[in-house]
Amino acid sequence: MPTSNRLPEEARADIVARLKRIEGQAKGIQKMIADDRDCLEILDQTASIKAATNALTGQVLEAFALYCLHHPDEFASPEEAVAQTVRALVRAGR
Question: Does 2 reside within a domain?
Answer without folding.
Answer: no
